[in-house]
Protein 1
Amino acid sequence: MEKNRYLKSKAKNKKTAMTGVWLIILAIALFAFIVVKYARNTAEHIGESRMPEKEDAYEVAKEFVKEDSRSKNLDFGDDGFSYAKTGDSVFVVRSAYTENIGNGESKKTNFSVTIRYHGGSADSRSSWDLLNINLE
């Protein structure tokens, strides 16, 4: 009888110990998942918060010119652009576009766009403010 009680007690203790082991394994797995998720998420945000390069400023400047122009037939071509950073995340982009008027005619327009980068993804228009735009 004494031996039977001892075996039941031992079986109960083993079951409790195994439950504890599974809870510890589950807690470790959950912790590892959270750490990996946080590390991946942080790495993505680090890549997004880089300072803009001249190509980023040019692409955003073209978007502002397209919004300002009445025509939707604009060709920015491959002539290039000039770029200046005037400080405190303010950029001046100068270039030209060709507007297809119709009947095979086109009109070339020079533009100058002054924009300010206020953080976020450098290639996203929502990360920029238009300060000035001149179409010549």
Protein 2
Amino acid sequence: MNDPADLIASSLLLVVIGEGVLWTRRNEPGLSRWKFRALLYGIAMGLVPLLMAQPALFARFTTILTGLCLVLFVLLIVVLYFFKRQLQGVNRVLLHAQELHKVGKTSDAIAVLQNHRRDAARVDKNTESILLTEMARLSLEISDIDAAGRWLDEAETLSKWNQSVYSTRADLFARAGDRESACDVIQRGLANLPQSVWLNTDLAKHLTDAGRHDEARKALARTIELLDQEKHLDVFNPEEWKEIRIAPLVQQLGLAERPLVTDAD
């Protein structure tokens, strides 16, 4: 019964459980992941020689582990089911708010989102951040600048990896005529999300509006490079993005007949 393969599988299961814990806390920037992993891997590696040397202990450990696996499997299925249901519910709320906004009921749309904030928080911090950012965007649409700023502050505190926070805050500055601050906000977002097609596109746009055309061309070249790589894309439809967002910038910068130059060139 003292099978090394079973022991290795048990250690791997411990590592998988630990990685699952890290995933649930992925939006907590203060968490020392490398220390957690060092402790976890140390325990997993220490179990192998300890249990190999004590067959009786190994048999007991295997029995406990088998029951634990069954419990964890059931819990995982339940958690995934409710997570999916909650996420679908938040998506429906966001779509409903968009429909209300389209028919001129923007204040009602914001109220609907605010009433479902707790549902978004149950999913994770990033989802709650997305909902708050949408409230900020809609507040901008009705020129409620103070409310938009408050929602954005809360959204950014919840998640530094929500690109719409930076995009919406940049729009807030741009509407006030502060184009340099708009550029600074997008660059701050890119420090956290350098591979974001969305933010690189926004940077090119705001740099263009600020008259910083050389920098805008570099940002646009970076965006096109990311789209061509087709990796880690944060836009739903890359082809539509090229047509609606990229093409106008190419025309505006007078690059229709000129090759874009990247930093590598």
Protein 3
Amino acid sequence: MRRVLQPWRRRGQHRLHAGAARARRGGLVTPDGVVLLGCQRSGTTALAHALAEAFAEANGTFVVNGKLPYLLHRWLTRRDLEDRHLRVDEILHALDRRPPGGPGAARWRSAVEMVLRELAADVAEGVAGTDPIALGRRILRDAHKDVSVWGDKYNEYLLHLEHLDSLLPEARYVMLVRHPTDVARSMLAWTGDRPWRPTTEAAALAKWETWNRRWLDHAGSLDPARWIVIEYDALCRGEETARLEEFTGVPLWEHLRALRPPREPDRDLPLPPSVLTTWSQLLDHARPSTLPGDLT
């Protein structure tokens, strides 16, 4: 009798891509890591936890909401360095207020603190220079020097792409996109302490558009080999696993198979023309020749 394979086992589940094999052997994919980007409520947290498990098996670390580059943007300035004061307390407090997730997060947090404390002494002695970008690069690379591959997810990275790219000039970006109606309704249903959550559909759609336009405006300045755009529903259907595995260099089949598409979405919310245009352009970035442009 013919054996029927599940969707996640088709297209070579047991065949590791060259990049994935390198990661499993401990080969460094990039010193600047893999950064997961995406607007809030786009599925980034679910994908980030799957990546965290996969990176851990590949002798690496992927932190969920690590946000260290974001904090360096706020708390590492030229004036700080001229004043010989690296703001270690502020950075560590921000990391601990909402601790990063993932199986390697505690070890990562310890490594970050060790690096910050060592460099704070250099800053106080005046031997670390006054270039915040150069010191930020050193902090990030030293914090990850003992892992084979590393990555991070934080939604607010979308708001500081130029600075992020200056800190991580060799980073590889995974941009996760989701239909604007689904995101807007998920934002409105969000519970918990979310003071920045929109309270109307119009505001939620506007926020979705603004954040995703940040990616579209910046992507043209990047080498296309450094980024991919993944559509959330396609990811949940298992259609993007092979491409994402090839891009990250980490085996992902077993970790992504738990993702499931949400229930059939109700997309009757009228979308403004500018939102439709943004969604269409994101789909062009994702899979220009195969992804249907369902804009309704």
